[in-house]
Amino acid sequence: MQDASASPMSSEVTPASADSNGPDASESVVSTHVLVPIEQVHKLRELARRTRIHQSEYLREAVEDLLAKYVRPANGDGQ
Fold it and tell me: Could you tell me the pTM of the whole model?
């Protein structure tokens, strides 16, 4: 649970426990807060219900896809 005094926009990072479909327990994970249009929330909830895959798993996959698309490799190989 997030500290009520912490602002949703603060840079404070709060450790969270992984869900059963999430990262390995040995991985560090944090809880974060995002604002999502209500229609997307409804669609994500329905997808998760229908597929029995946690919403958090879909969101982690989306972040991975976004980073793969926009973040350049650190080794400078130009890919």
Answer: 0.62
Return the half-sphere exposure (C-beta side, CA atoms, 13 A cut-off) of residue 42. 3
CA 59, 62, 64, 67 torsion-angle sign:
negative
| Calpha distance 62→10 (Å, rounded) | 22
Residues 6+ away with beta carbon under 8 Å from 57: 19, 21, 22
Dihedrals phi, psi of 31, to nearest 5 degrees: -90, 140
pLDDT digits (tens, 9 = 90+) for 30-78: 999 999 999 999 999 999 999 999 999 999 999 999 999 999 887 765 5
Amino acid letter, 17 = S
Distance CA(2)–CA(19), nearest Å, equals 17
Can you give the C-alpha Rg of the chain in angstroms? Answer: 15
